[in-house]
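Problem 12. The chain below contains 110 residues. Write out its predicted structure in token notation.
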Amino acid sequence: MHSDWPFELTDGSIRLRLSATNYSESAIQKTAYRLARKCAAHVAPEDDWFMVTLVAERRLDADSARQLVTDFLRQLNDELLRERIGEQTKGVRELLLAHAFSRSGLVERE
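Solution.
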């Protein structure tokens, strides 16, 4: 891996090693989807890690690779935050939906 950055640049592709403890596969896949216009991504679980390979349409130099990794990590942190907020607010959302359906007439009361 690059000494200052958590990635390896070889043959125009970028390899990231992300901890499965810190990142969910779902968040990584959603991040890859959000960056699909910039690059293709392959995510492979490997023990307690996810190996992520990013391949851009054009060959990347070190600066371009750093920028793509920065974009990927920013998006990944956004996805993680969305997941955490979703988990924390799940009960409230379910309560609101239950209340809305109870008044809609779609659910028959016994």
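Discussion. The chain has one domain: 7-102. Students who got a different answer should revisit the alignment rule from Section 12.3.
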